[in-house]
Amino acid sequence: MRPGDQKIGWLTAMWLVVACMIGTGVFTSLGFQLMDVKNTYTIILLWVLGGAFALIGAFTYAELGTHFKESGGDYIFLSRIFHPFVGYLYAWTSLSVGFSAPIGIAAMAMISYLEPINPSIFNTWFGIGVIVLLTLVHSISVKKSGQVQDITTYIKVAFVIALVFIGFWIAPSEENAILLDSSWQKELLLPGFAVSLIYVTYAYTGWNSAAYIIDEIREPLKNLPRALILGTILVTIVYVLLQVVLLRHATVDQLSGQVEVATISFSNIFGNNGVLWVGVFIGIQLIATISGYLWIGSRIIYAMAEEHPLWNKLVYKNNLDIPTRALWIQAAIAILLTLTGTFEQVLLYASFVLQLMGTLTIASLLWVKRKSGTFTSPGRPYFQIIYILFSLWILGYMLIEQPKESFMGLGIVAVGAISYFIRPKVNKT
């Protein structure tokens, strides 16, 4: 049993959710949306809908988490509700790419934003150094993990709020991308609206983060739902406001089809030299994202290792109850993917499987009987059915548009399925 002073409160758990949600997607995806839809109301609706789907997920995981009260997130839920084999497949995907690849992507994205300051310092090895340093911090204690997560997320949130404040305080450009006519009604029926919604939902990934560390949260019945729901709502508000800011300070021609929409818009405010620091802080805020994924990913690995003999070497905790072996194996895989430059490719392969497993987890609530002493998800089962239908549409789209990558992802799962049945011989002494 973890001592009370080695648990975190709802605020740190909420910052963990915020840290894992706010990565690079909010700063980069608007340009692709503007290729198909132009009306500001349409853009706002996209980001509100993305937040609504994330909130349904938060409701669902809050109920599942307070029902089972075990760290491990989807692994625990899928294993207990359906079958250990299903939970194992999720944990296997998380171990191999599900969390390691996002850590690598965040590290390399951080480097790309910091590189203009000094390319000889901010290189691949710097990114690996950040991963190692944060892994060391998370190896000490939950209390230390919480302190570092708080500080890095404060910086992240302060930076994003500052961008929003500056963007609304300074008068918009004479020519900008704001369009407030009735064309939004027609745009809702365009295929591009639906496709844009897929990429918006990717930017909301991470809303379930606190559900992976339930037994590290004080009073989880009260604090887990609070962290998941308030974190998701906060991020949704920030996301919507930031998109409006980006539209206020650049034209459609400048933004459409571009990746670095944040630096484009703010270069119209600060100039080319000033906007360099916007990019630098986008890079710095990713430290909180790397930290968050290291923290939660290791708990899935440990939960799996406890119940499967193949991984029992990872069943180890230090004197302050930290699963250090699981933590370091995840860091090692992330570093390997970073060094080989394959993290983006393997994450693309795994995206179909991760979407499928996430859909199964949302659906699993429909098989859970309500009991006293748990959070009750509002709108159950209707919200979950809406989420499942939308997610199935995403899966169908991915199969059509990315058949090779989707089947490669299923191949990763197939390897995991084989490993499930491997039972090492135990030496009896």
What does this structure look like?
By secondary structure, the chain is mostly helical. The protein has a single domain, classed as Amino acid/polyamine transporter I (Up-down Bundle), CATH 1.20.1740. The chain has helices at 10-21, 25-28, 30-33, 40-68, 74-81, 84-98, 100-114, 124-138, 142-169, 184-187, 191-203, 220-248, 252-255, 261-307, 324-340, 343-364, 382-401, 403-420. Helix 1 crosses helix 14 (261-307) and helix 7 (100-114) packs across helix 16.
The major β-sheet equals: none
| Name of the top-level CATH class | Mainly Alpha
The overall pLDDT average reads 92
Helix content: over 70%
Which series of helices and strands comes N to C? Answer: HHHHHHHHHHHHHHHHHH
Question: What's the helix and strand layout?
Answer:
Elements: H1 10-21, H2 25-28, H3 30-33, H4 40-68, H5 74-81, H6 84-98, H7 100-114, H8 124-138, H9 142-169, H10 184-187, H11 191-203, H12 220-248, H13 252-255, H14 261-307, H15 324-340, H16 343-364, H17 382-401, H18 403-420
Helix pairs in contact: 1-9, 1-12, 1-14, 4-11, 4-12, 5-6, 5-16, 6-14, 6-16, 6-18, 7-8, 7-14, 7-15, 7-16, 8-14, 8-15, 9-12, 9-14, 12-14, 14-15, 16-17, 16-18, 17-18
